[in-house]
Amino acid sequence: MNWNITPNKQPWYGFTEDQIFGEIMSDPEICKYILRIIAPEAKIKHIYPPNKQREVKDPGHRKQKDVRLDVLVEDEKHNLYDLEVQTSDKGDLGWRMRYYASKIDQRYTLPVGKTYRDLRKVTIIFICTFDPQKKGKVRYEYESFEKVDKSDQLNDGIKKIIINTKGKQDGIGPELAALVNLANNKQVHLNRIFDKIQKKIVDINNDPKRRDEIMDYETKLLEREQDGKEEGIRQGIQKLIAALRDFGATNAQILKRLEQDYGDQFTKKELKDFMKQA
C-alpha cells in the first residue's frame, strides 16, 4: 500500500476528517475494533450497524441548538456510544460533551412508559487533535463520583472519554498507540484492520470525486461557522445598544460607542440600522 501523504495529494484527508471518519467508522468490524481499543472495559461483543452524521433535532423547542453526531453506535446490550472527532480547541469540550449526552438521552434512551432505571448507558468519546486538559495524557476518562470518597460512584450511566492524539505515548498499549499514530497521519503496521483502514483512506484520497465532495463539505462547514460568528456579533451589538439605552445614553453616544467597538466591521449606516432595529 502506498501511504503517500505529501506532496502528491494536497490537502491530505486523514482519519480525523469528518467525512473520512464517518466512512471508516460505518464499517461494523472497524467500528467495533476501535471501540474496544478506546473503551476495553465495555467488553463489546457485537454492535448494530453504526449511524454516521445522525442529526438530533427537537421540533418542540426550535430555539434549542441541534447537534449532528459523527458516529452513533449501539452494542448488544443496547448501550450507546457517540464517537466524535474534534480538531479545534474552543475551550468548551466538557460543556459540549454534556450537551451531546443530554440530546442523546432526550432522543434515544428512555421510551415513553419506561422508568429512569431503563435508561441506556451512554459513552461519549471525543478523539481530539489537541490536548483539552493540558495534562499530556493520551486517554482521559470521566465518571460521576463523590468528591471526597472516589469509591462512592453515582451510577448515572454516563461515561466520557477523551483521546488526545498529541499526548505522550509512554505506558499505553500498542493498539491505542497505533490509533493515535493513525490520527496523526502516520503509517501504521500492526494488523489487518489497521491495514484495512489505511487502504480506505488512500482510496478516498485517490478518488477525485470523493475529494471534491469532502472539499465541498468542509467549505459549507466554514461558511456555516462564519455565519454563526456574524450572527453572534449582531446579537452582541443589539444587547449593547439595549444596555446603553437602559443607562440613558443618547443616540449620538450609542453610535460613537458602536463605531469604537465595531467600526472596523460595519459601516456607519449599518450601525445606525442596528440602532433602529434594537
From TrEMBL:
Domain of life, per lineage: Bacteria
Protein name per UniProt: Rpn family recombination-promoting nuclease/putative transposase
Source organism: Lactobacillus kefiranofaciens
